[in-house]
Amino acid sequence: MKALITWGGWDGHEPDKVAKIFEGIVTDAGGQADVTDRLTCFDDPDKLKTYDLIIPVWTMSELSREAATHVSEAIAHGTGMAGCHGGMCDAFRGNPLWQFITGANWVAHPGGDGVKHRVTITSDDPLVQGIPDFDVSTEQYYLHTDPANNVLATTTTDVVIWYHSPNGPVEMPVAWTRHWGLGRVYYNSLGHKADVIADGPAYEMLKRGILWAAGSKAAAAGQDVSQYQSPGNHW
Question: Is a pLDDT exceeding 70 seen at residue 116?
């Protein structure tokens, strides 16, 4: 397994520490991780396609249309993507292609940090099988999500009363998988601080998701991405 880990953006999410956790997961599995704190790694479309996995750890910041297209093409051709919290689904707010690839964009975390809420496992998928429901005290992400996501875990949004409350509580996705062309994509909304995902069920979920996404290229072998293309494709 060869992974690209790129980190940066808002320091409050401890991107360097989160990147270290991800690097440990990759190397413990016998893989190699190229780690960078620059987005220039997205400038070379051919090199991106050599990776089995891309792990972004970038909250906010800006990404050009060209760079997003390079990432899109790499994943569509079989490279996996995995990440967590704001490092993946609050990255590059002005780039809708990125949001389409990842399956969501962050809009709020009512109550801020330290909100105690339950993560409920809602699937029998091997990525969460045997992991019990568990409580966390951290940001509870409210996301606008793609209904095509394969949801693995949820949380209920009635923990904090705010302006969204008159709409009633909803089961908000916490973790999911999806596909982009031939590529596998995994996301988990936990990870406001590195210690939230450093151990326990949250760590186990992320580890399984990262390794699943890393198997994307092998799973795509022999398939032709052109089956998902048409002359009028654009964004």
Answer: yes
